[in-house]
Amino acid sequence: MAIQSLGYIGVNATQLDSWKGFACGVMGLEDVSDALGDDSTHYYKMDYHPYRFFVQAAETDNLALCGWETNNQAGLDEVASALTVAGVAFTWGDDALIAKRRVQNLLSFTDPAGNHHEAYWGVVSDFKVLNSPEGVSGFVTGDQGLGHVVLPAPNFDETARFFTDILGFGLSDLMKLRFTPDPDEPVKRLWFMHCNRRHHSLGLFEVPHPAGCIHVMTEVANVDEVGRGNDRRIAAGVKLSGTLGRHANDHMVSFYMQSPGGFDVEYGAEGLTIEDWTKYEVFESTVPSFWGHDFSVGQQD
Ligand SMILES: [Fe+2]
Questions:
Q1: Is 30's pLDDT higher than 90?
Q2: Is-contact 104 121, C-beta < 8 A?
Q3: Fewer beta carbons under 10 A from the terminal one: N or C of the chain?
Q4: Which CATH code is given to the segment(s) 3-121?
């Protein structure tokens, strides 16, 4: 497939500064807005990429878009032709947008559920290492990208087919969830998909979400870093959405918290990687986690 990884996340914010304390003080990202940003866009760095999150001034607080990295112009052309063959509209970025994103070329499109995306190649980087204001040693990125994102997909079949059949994502595993004990409640599907050796870079959940995103996951080096992140969350008064636990599918030890964007951020470590997907067996898991991950805490006041 042409798409190699989740490269960046764009967020809309009614107050740009609302993300600064969360991104830097809790997640431990480096604010590089002085070097890259302006009055309307702030940038946060995780690794040798110039940024992995940008936050843009908007009239809403939600996810703006996901940026998917391809290897080169041929890879991006492959995405463009797949969209063209499928009859999906897309727009090539103009010079101003390409310069703003700090890439060589990009195109923008919307998936059938209305989630916005960009595909690009050729990040412009000075390869400065992360200087985390909270001493986070580093994030697990590289060929695994910045982490994963779980997006709402109420029109599930159409959206899942878009990512598998048109963009070439592979199915990693799936869940079928009910929110009540009522056996007559229709199940909501949650599919996890990969585009590299990270167990999943994308999740699709068969529900709508006002913030246009269920959660974004970033991975730190070890469980101690996860625990320190949770300490910072408590100190900052950021609400917990899901307690510490280990997922059954990607083995991530993580907790979930409410970001200023109206969606959760999962902060984890020890995520599973699959070196040879041809030998991998897709499965349906009936539990989200081996232990922990009590999401009822997010519903409490
Ligand atoms: Fe996750």
A1: yes
A2: yes
A3: C
A4: 3.10.180.10
